Fold this sequence. Notes:
It is built from nine helices and six strands, in the order E-H-E-H-E-H-H-E-H-E-H-H-H-H-E. With 208 residues, the protein is an alpha/beta fold. The protein has a single domain (2-206), classed as HUPs (Rossmann fold). The chain has a six-stranded mixed sheet, with helices on both faces. Helix 1 packs parallel to helix 2 (42-57) and helix 4 packs across helix 9.
Amino acid sequence: MKLISLLSAGIDSPVATYLMLKKDIEVVALHFWGEPYTDKNALERVRSVVDQLEDVTRRNLKTAFIPIGEERFKIARECNRRLQCVLCKRLMYLVAEKLAEKEKADALLTGEAIAQVASQTLPNLEIIDRAVGIPVLRPLIGFDKEEIIKIAREIGTYEISTQKGICCGLVPRKPTTQARLDEIIECEDKIDFDKIITEAIQELEWLT
């Protein structure tokens, strides 16, 4: 089995990635770099997370990154702001699916846990999953935050993930917890998601 992990500099996705690497599953990490709507050091924190995961698992973690700051702004500018997080997640999934095709990966891997944030309610996760045609694995789906933090501390990623920084400056004040598929698709058509995905995958770079 081979997975594409949507790896951020946060607490959850490094733990999910670790759990799969520990099972001797091949993982390729993909980071969506959101500058200027995330801090400039986010990419370096991801690099540090990757180094730590490789050290603790004794496994290689091939890692790519794609800048999507402008695409996030386009979503925020053209669409209902309350849909921002669901649309952004669907964009990430669709780009990751393209990378999965190139890498011959079998599924996507995320650090999502049920109801931790607005995009992770069951209705929103169902809409996000429908963006792609391959499975999405969520090893942390039933974990609470303290359980995830405990593992992060044990594997040495917690201190990296909690360094001062901006997660995303475009998160709306009141994101929807129950998006409707018809309004999501309407927004995606408006901003030409297909073109955004094609351009994004063309801008992919590998961390060295």
